Protein 1
Amino acid sequence: MLGNLCKVAVIAASMTVASIGIARAADEELPADVIAAAKKEGKVAFYTSFFGAKAHLDIIKSFEAKYGIAVELLDVRASEMTERIRTEQSSKRYIADVVQNGAASLVRQQREGYLQPHGGIPNAKNLLAEHKETDFGVPTYILGYGILINKNAVKGDDVPKSWQDLKDPKWKGKIISDDPRALGGGNVMFTAFQDKLGDDYNKALAQQALVLSRDVGNDERRVARGEYPMRIPQLFSNWLALKKLPVMFIVPVEGLPYIRFDFGVLNGAPHPNAARVFINHYLSEQVQTAYAAAGLMPVVDGVLDKAGEAGAELKGIKLLGTTDVDHQNAMLDRAKQLYP
Amino acid sequence: MSEQTAGRLAVRRDEGTHMLDRLRALLRGRNLAVLALILLLAFLTVYPLSMLLYGSLHSTPPGTAGSFNLEGYRQIMTAHNAVVLLNTIGISFAKTIPSLVVAIFLAWIIARTDTPCRGVLEVMITLPFFVPPILTAMAWGMLGNLQVGLINQTWKAITGSETSPINVYSYGGVIWHMSQYTTTFLFLFLVDAFRAMDPALEEASRMCGASRWTTFRKITLFLLLPVLTSGVMLSFIRGIESFESPLFFGTPAGIKVISTEIYDLITQRAVPEYQSATALSFVILGLMLLLVVWQWTVLRGKSFQTVTGKGFNPGVVRLGAWRWATFAFCLLFFFVTTVLPVGQLAVGSFFQFFGFYGWDMLTLDHYRAVLGDSEFWRATRNTMMLGLVGATATMVLGSIVAYISIRTTWRGRRLIDAMAWLPWMMPGIVLAIGFLWGFAMLPAQIPIYGTVWALFLAYLALGTPVSVRVMSGAYAQLSFDLEECSRVHGATFFQTLTRILVALAWPAFAVGWVLAFFGIMRELSASIMLYTTGSEVLSVVLVKRWVNGLAEEVSVIGLMMMALVIVFRWVQLAVIKRRISTL
């Protein structure tokens, strides 16, 4: 057990969001002819599966103000966006320029042949070492998942410090969890546990009779109201909005399961130059700081210090693990076995 | 050329001319109209379903290389799915029957008794149908949860009991949540049918010695059979496909139904399993078609006409002191299904956090956030435009289909009726995929995909089954002698149509219009698949906020929708019905 923990700590430490004291290179624009071509194209169609996030709107406004290029935003849920893109690509109705999706899903879209090489993004030079771009995908931000506790129901030594603490019999039937049998935070957590803490850990957690739900917004409130003392996995960015309630976000020592959102440029994109300028803008200090302030972990160096309270809290948070494109269905199947 | 050859050619020419004449005759007038209608319905319903059928028989979705096989159907034939299907049927049955009993009682109270304030009560009773299920789920999650639910807390405070009697996260909770919609839906179907009933038939039954109960069973309910069977079937089928209630209240209790299984196959797999999902949907569609055939069998050869050339006043039963009991029953229904959940939403919308009440938490920020959001206003404009145009088009189409199906013996009427049914029998989430595939795969010269037309056509297809059922029920009650009398007196077909049929069926048309309008307003599955930048609709805006945990802003939007419902219902009942209805 101790060995496993040490291993976890080493892995987690290596994946820490490195942001302390590193000087970041200045933002760099694309060549003038690309920007001129982008302005001539006049707009960029942006599809994202980060559905309904208000942070998008301010960032889009900043892009439109800076470049005079209109952004057509279409945000839908991941499954709906994936099918729209598949349908548009296979029917050759090219509408979208840029797609933003979970890293694993984007790799799948690349394998299906829906993406084209982005052609180089100057600000990618500031990406953290563990989040480098590929020819087709450019990281944009990270969602981290921890534990949400009700401060009135979980006090003192009962407050979990490690994911292992959730195995304590006193929590049996008292933890509400996002459903690991479905795509989403629950399965990201399950996958990270399977990879980093082992199958035995997931088995032990299943023995705790987790109450499985898919009603994320309501489940957070149920913990705050005291219906359940604890919820897993809790999105850090969502917790920022709950701070006035009697709840607390816990970062276990092993780190946070996470999902990274990446950008890609779609085949047949009607506005390819505007797409590149748009992606480059997303890696700028201004945008990465805005995301950090909204509780999303940045993927570039040196912005957390400028991101206010949320940035300070994100500093030094370790990342535990994430989903893998080749094992997503296997993980869903394993979750169904453990939670029949 | 020999005489024989010339003769043969002449015969062929005659045959050819004859065939052309027949073709011309076929394409003339009525037949042409029927053909056009069949083509329109085929495009709206059969075409997206054919894309789904392709999906169920092909290893990959349309547009992607693969092969034809029956793997999808093989994969769904499992004991697990059989149990889930039985479970689903059981839940749908359990919510339909009590809802039907309550709906009949409420419709009878409103249409046929002297209960006080019936006009106001009618508006109040129908309100739950128009509240998006997400909102009531949110409210009932707070009212009926085991640990801190308001109802359980009140019960414990009054009785001193330690146990909580209500747990909304259970079979009972799923059925209860579904029932609120079903009861009001059935009520809307029934109330005008009760009004359009000639009490002479009931009086004759009483004169012949039948008791009040026997008369109600054998005359009143029998005459309502077309409307009743349509309403029950629509409601039962919707119960099979219902998604929100099992997802919110069933999943935490381990309750599985077909709709959540389909949802999982499409949205919760790394690569969506469209072949299995569409195959499962077609199995459901096949079972539902059996129900439609059953309805045809039940109604075949019977007459349900109650509106004849003779004038009549809808009979009002004098209840005496009991009218206050029926009044109280309606109020209780309104209180439980509307005041409790909507009150919870209204209160929650004024506090910083839904469910956390303190003076320091009072705020108008959520109203400011919603009212100051340009996307909300754009979505409101789009929804109103699509709702007004879409509901009107849906009702016009539904009226035509119902007329041909019920009032004519034209060839092809059964086909038209069956085609109009189809969208109702396919789970919304699957049908939405069918529309997406269908519109995107059209030739480039038909640019429907990515435009507001895609939403309009999807709404038209989705609303038609209800509009046809509403108008069919109304037409079935109208005696043929009314039309014949009009034609004998020299009225043209269209004069008869507008001045007899439309005038008499207007109340049903108005109810159907409201159902269609708010059906469009609530529709999510197709909307989220087909909307584009600039064509956002309210249901999408609502879900965006829900997914992001903004329950308070969801409440604000929901309350605004409620206000709109009240205005619409009021106008419909107070103005249109009083001035135009002759019933």
Protein 2
Amino acid sequence: MVVSESSARRYALDPDVRLMLEVRDDNAAAFEELVLRYQDRLMTILRHLAGDAGQAEDLAQEIFLRVYRSRKTYEPSAKFATWFFTIANNVVSNSLRSRSRRHEHTVASRDSGPQDVLLAASSGQMPARLLDKAEMREIVRMALESIPERQRLAVLLCKFEGLSYADIAAALEATPQAVKSLLARARINLREILQPYYESGELPGKNASVNDE
Amino acid sequence: MSPDPATTESSLEEQLVAYLDGELDAEAVRRIEERLAAEPEVRETLNRLERTWEMLDELGATPVGESFTQTTLEMVAVAAEDDVRRAMAEVPLRRRRRWRLACAGVFAAAAAGFGAAFLALPNSNRQLLADLPVLENLEEYRQVDDIEFLRLLRQKGLSLHPSSEPPVEERPSLENVPAADLASRVASLSPGEKADLAQKKASFENLNRSEREKIQRLHQEIRNDADAAELRRIMHDYYLWWKNLSPYDKNELSSLSSPPARIARIELLKQEELKRTKNLSEGDVAALRDWMKQYVAKFEDRYREYLKTLSPEKRKAWEDKRPEERRWDTLRFFRQQWQPWQRGGNKSPPPEELAALRAKLSPEIQAMLQDKPPLEQWRIIQGWLHSLPRQKFDAPGGRGPNSLVDENEIAEFFKGLPREERERLLNLPPEILQHELQRRYLSRMNQMQPFVGRPEGPFSGGPPGPRGFPDWRPPNKSK
């Protein structure tokens, strides 16, 4: 394998970089391995960006296809996850842009919200022990999905992928300082929505106002 | 002038968030911690931000649906096919352009010689011809860091040539071939060879400059070496051997940059390979093959279940196939499942199936397996399935009833070849005819429907063939 010395070091450190270099060399088994490694992680993020599981899977497939098509130009110049989520960000942004042109909803098309969860509980369909968990999950999901997409993606990459500000900045094609502000605004927004719930059990409104800036 | 209170507040929250994320430098951490110690309201803000962040843990992971992996890989396979189709379409276009230019240049050539006419060709074509000697061994060069590695391999006398491959014929180097001859040689390549060359060219151009230079340097060093032919043979054998490794072994090997460390690892891998196969007699190999054939026939339903997850077009394509083609697809599906490194692919067959296989093996092998738990037994058997030369496994003709391919199928295949091909084959000596027919038949079977049953693994040994799907090669393809 011909790689520069510095690339070789990164290559040795990040197994996914090694795998992607295999993919670059047209190794189909390596590509499959890459899909297996990243599919659930990607879905966890896309599930909160797309309207439903079906749309999230469509986006995930589009992202893997882009990864495949970009294989020949892949250079191990960054942590693999950063490169991968840069592609993911581009695909998601394009998709959201075209959907907003078609005036489609992004994440508002879920079947149920926290009120539905409470309704299920009052009708006795759900044991009380599970209610707290389910209700909390629904409220957190709703809060997350009510903040702007870019803030949401930064939060998801930070929380679930554990990416540094520098890596998130690379993925979102922004500066680390901009990511710092973005994440701060996201967390302030989340706090505004969730605070009434965890302090007094008050359910947040479906259209809680958030700071887009 | 005092700062705007709102800005201060927002900047404080920004700093608190960065503090929670461990993104502040030491000085900023010190300042924040001072404020946290002195100001209860700052502590409260931090606690609220932290509590909100922890609530996100409730969301948990979202796994993909059951068929996601399969459909994604199939979609990518279709895209790969399209890419190759485009590459193939591009080659004749270039050729047409070259012919037009070559015709227009006849008069100029008469006056100034062919060299001048050739300079009128598109730059990309000139570059292609200039790079041709490097491109023909590009895949090999990419797996070899420097000439020292090859010299060390030679010194160690390690035999890496896969036993399933015919000996490599020494190819005359293209180094001193005149450009005009190279051009006509390229023009006479088959469409498959052109697509392969176009892909190599794209691959080479996509490398960064230092990588390209490194490859060119290696090429020059080998060319200038007194034992150039021998080093090329060693490089080619190494590449054939490397191609059959699992992705994990490949990664591990590639991460070792010092030639002695890589050679040590190669020796270790070779020892493991030997351990896996050395105790198997011809009878055991035949028994494994026989078992595999029966197993595939018995569990064909599982493949049918898998087919249900495919698009109606793919299902229809499968239904339209001849019985032997379907059988081959099924076999490929199971083989893929048996690859030890596939997630979910290394499930042990039912105990009664393992017992049936054990009973067919020689007493020594049975005794060796006997005391081991079923999973360990399966791991060993997987190793055999993975490492046995596929010729031994698949080859029809002369292998009796255990062969995976019927002689009748080969005969039918032969009948279906174009007349001139049949005549050419019939002029070959009988053993070469048999080998060539097997190779073509297996190649055809393996290329029929890429990715149904997912990509081939170690069984697909051999140098890169026509690139239908990346790494999707016909077995036993000789150069």
Protein 3
Amino acid sequence: MNKHFQGIIMSKLGIVSYGSYIPKYRISIEEIAKVWDDDPNEIISQLQVFSKSVPGPDEDVATMSVEAARNTISRWKGNPQDIGAIYVGSESHPYAVKPTATIVAAAIDAEKELTAADLEFACKAGTAGMQMCFGLVKSEMIKFGLAIGSDDSQAKPRDPLEYTAGAGSAAFLIGKERVVAELEGTYSITTDTPDFWRREGAVFPSHGNRFTGQPAYFQHTVDASKGLMEKLGTKPSDYNHVTFHQPNTKFPLTVAKMLGFTAEQIDNSLICKNIGNAYSASSMLGLAHILNNSNSGDRIFMTSYGSGAGSDAFSFSITDEIEELKSYPLTVEYYVNNKEEINYGKYSRYKGILRC
Amino acid sequence: MEPPKIWRERRGKYLVLGILCQDCKKKSFPITQYCPHCSSENIAELKLAQTGKILHFTRVSQTAEELMFYAPYIIGLVELDDGIKVTGQITDTKLEDLTEGMKVRMVFRTLSKNGEEGLIGYGFKFVLI
């Protein structure tokens, strides 16, 4: 067995519950383009994104993580004191030193017998946390682990990133009891690829423009996806749904086609067109949305991508337990539709670009 | 806000805990060492209802320096579904969109920021359902 391959999983191990959160505010592509005299139709055509989510002035990665975690716990109806690990993946933690995960632990009443840490791997830190939880649960070091991907992503004004850098949070509770999505296997690709970065103390990230595409996003996503399917002996047509990292809508649609997935298989995951790129939460929000639209027996494929660079691929099989969790009201769909448009001035104030 | 205050108040502010007096059986908020109704020390922690209705509300424009980033903001008196009355900010909304009696639920938000380098205060606010 390859040293990086954590499948085939023999005992029932997987996702026990899930939760999401997306801020209420939206700014449209047209509104941003108006400020910079860009052609909105050209940008929408290129990115296939119409608006992006914007956190309110009293929101940050900690508050969004807590909301997603609380939705996960409420949907599960279990005891948060049974959670033995909390990992929060983000590239926009409110503190450089002071873990977000500790705030989440206190806010869901999971203190204090647990391990916790903040993770950073660009847009795949949340799925790295899922793998850590799978490992800890499988080895019976903990009973349940909570992995969160959450970001209030930064973008320099007028940078192309400004059109898509959104916000959101998704959480997955990993365990062995009442599993709704059984893990069939997980597999990762990691290389030193400098496609996107933010130096210590810098306010905004920098990127390699078109270099973020072929050698970065596409190469890693394809390699991790093909690698896992090869190990499991599966093919794209074996899956009902697939989700990839969504820096825009065009990239996941393109990589799905490259791998042989159809538009129908990826359709349920594509929330980027309404909320933009939620960074660490991006592929995880896609998975949360798929879970709420899946049925017992469905198979789900997910591959995240984090700049720097790496991809984590997962294969899940849905169990009968999913039906009980689908009626929880605060779904990805609820948050996508619960929205209020703001103008560029208010956006600048809420994002801290404009200060008094 | 100083570190000991954030640390001491976190359970009450994060989890919205009050007390249930084991002698007079009355509920109250926030957590105190004594029952405010009968002064008994025989009290237990009580997790309050997460939803309620707005009784009164107003807009705050002038406030403490650590809150000016959020101003103007709306503060309201909310009667929770378990009967306890709680004061808190009503966020993600505008004054003209509110009326008394509207249903709200609790959310987790930042309450204060001590400059660019100080601690961030977290706790509950309300949003419309």
Protein 4
Amino acid sequence: MLGRWFVDFWKGTVVVTMRGDRVPELLNAATGQGIPIWEISRLKNGDYRMMINRHDIHRLRPLMRRSQIKLRLGRKIGVPFLLWRAWRRKFFLAGALTFLVSLYMLSSVIWSVEVEGAEKRLSPESVEQAAAEIGIKKWAWIGHLPDTDELQSKLQDKLPQITFAGVQIQGTKVKIQVVEKVEGVTPQPTAPQHIVATKKGTVRDYAVHRGKITVARGELVQPGQVLISGTLAEGKSSVHATGEVWAAVYYPSKVVMPLTTTRKELTGETVEKHFLTFWGKPIQIWGYGKIPYAEFEEEAEDKVLKIRDFVFPIQYRHTVYREVEIEKMTWTEEQATEQAKELAKADALSKAGQDAKVEEQILLRSQTKDGKLEVEIVNRVLENISKPVPFTPGPPADPDPNATKPAP
Amino acid sequence: MRASWRQRVKKMAADMLDVPKDSILDVPRITLIGGLQLYVENYRGVMEFRDDLLRLALSQGELHVYGKSLVVKSIFPAEVVIEGNISGIKYLE
């Protein structure tokens, strides 16, 4: 029975309604010709309803003509009709198919690579790059990736700084977990070097870790002069000299301070205007009228519609005009001098470096001219003037192979 | 006359051999399953089909099937299957 139903469904079945007096006659004739008819019933209005196969309709036609029967096709069931309906909606179906295919394809590529654990010795970017080299990158087919075990060992080969690499594929996201090798003790550098002065200054203090100090406290040194020598025992051995030498360095600064200054102050009063800009040309759309302030500051903000690289040429501009009051200030000479000293200090420190300290500020000259105070100040700054300079040890006076450490 | 003689011979043979008569005689075999399904084998055609009455032609006579909401479930040259609320059948020689 079910098999029959499947065959009928495959071939296509039609529910037909027949009207006429001689339907039983037709049924007999059709049966005699071997046309299968089933589910024949009588309707309330006297019509006959039955089911026949799709391809038997044309065989019925001559019989119907003979017995003057009108036939109406009703519901159509079966694969041929489904196909026909599908063909009528082919674009809809194509869309559905495209959707499914694209969904499948998009879900089978890598969308993101996430790196965890790369903090100290490795940057996440370098891990990502290494991963990209073995095929883990955006838009790569997940199906083409080898086994995660293989990926992990490959990643470990690529990155010698890690002890473990874990690769996990979670849907369209690849999670890479790395464990960095614990940093060992870095070997002491052994390359021979001197510590030399970077600036001219008076040596104040020093701390030698390795090497031999060649200057005394209070000595004036020139830039490039060796402070801590890496050459020991009259050139027989060389070391990697390290240490710090602190010296007083003088920085002269010349500062010009105006005695009267103006200061702008916002009053809090604002006026707003709204514009639309077409290719940069503003056309006002709201907030007409003159700006009622003598002095004001203007602040314009453009709302830009941007789609990737395309900037929409019509933009909205909101401009705020803030009222300002200009205040005149006059400084006394003393105040101005203080101010100038501060400036000179900042100037000196910017040249000397972060760990420097201004010890003293000596006012050399101070002069008021055209309402401006001209000051010359010398800053005495205590700073670290040491700088390592590598050198190649010359041939030792005594050719003793054990005495000189060859440079690695 | 000749046919009836042949009929008689067949009937006699069926009697003597004790086999179902429909296999030898040209008579219908009617199977009623409850009041729901009726199988009529060896019929000759549909004479009338109504919601409450189905008249089938037989080799000799007619078969009337009474009932409510009668449906011809399937129809073949030698067999017809009727479903519905069958309330009675009448065999007319």
